[in-house]
């Protein structure tokens, strides 16, 4: 169907993971053979965001090496690589889809992939996902890979979104004991968190205690989870039929953030800052706590720090120290249904190689800086922060990205946060306004999908 019809590592660990990758690998349709008996040459296009860390500082260099390795096993499949940026990539994809020039395969995240799946733009990958694989991937991650009973994204790497803390700052002011690092699960209460911020304000006046941002959509998962956990709330109800974040407690949490700006516990001018702006303050050593962090970002930031410091991961605080609800980052691959079965089959072979090749499957995971989407594949890194991140996966909650109308819903989020930050609305008023608009978007999206 045309897509526009609807418009770890010890030696033993390495061996074990390689075995698991082979065992969990899938069989995919192969391109048809030519009259000579050889596989028919196929040319496919792979568009890729910077899903893998740049090799030697060169964006795309790692991907080119990966393709060369793939071609040794699949010489009749030519892969044309095009790297996308996070800034211009989304619009380029929209234009390509609208003009019938979508790529054949892409490495991306659920937010866009599920939206494409709901519009019948993608080829299902059910033939690649065995029962063994499904059992080895958490329900929260499989939910982000599927629309109904159709798998549209092959899950590869994951990481829990958490908070990042400049550990060095707390060591310098003698307040390391205020962080929950001595607890195996690192959970903490709002009062404990607030006390830590106040210590930074008092003892390191040149450092901003915590970050917040509300200028653009990027990093919205950080602000969502922050407010939800500070209020022990959920963003959506269990069946994603309506927004659930507009509680009195969540409104109070948002009011506290706005007051925190005035009290110098939260970065000033948050209404005009992006997630990238706040991340840059963290990399400069000017910010003690950042909201939108993960093992992937920690790895990517290792060479981008403008000040020398150790960064650690902690979950969002909750009112009473109850288990937090963390949103899972998930990266994976999707295949566009461009109406050419040979290209679809070849694209699936590339996906299978990237995810499951005995040698490159492990390399690729490490190059993403993330954890494996498979529960059984662990110990990829000799790093206590990654060890903790693997433990923190138990806090995965329902991912908001699977909601119908999510792409529209997220556009209403930051404008409401801005209204609170500039004093035009209380937290509850803003969240009620957001819920009204978001619920309408859900209703509209569900109606459109039924047509």
UniProtKB/TrEMBL annotation:
Q: Which InterPro entries match?
A: Bact_solute-bd_prot1, SBP
Signal peptide location: 1-23
| Pfam families in alphabetical order | SBP_bac_1
Q: Which domain of life is it from?
A: Bacteria
Q: What UniProt keywords apply to this chain's record, in alphabetical order?
A: Cell membrane, Lipoprotein, Membrane, Palmitate, Signal, Sugar transport, Transport
Name the PANTHER family for this protein: ARABINOSE-BINDING PROTEIN-RELATED (PTHR43649), POLYGALACTURONAN_RHAMNOGALACTURONAN-BINDING PROTEIN YTCQ (PTHR43649:SF33)
**Name by which UniProt lists this protein:** Multiple sugar transport system substrate-binding protein
Instruction: Name its species.
Output: Paenibacillus shirakamiensis
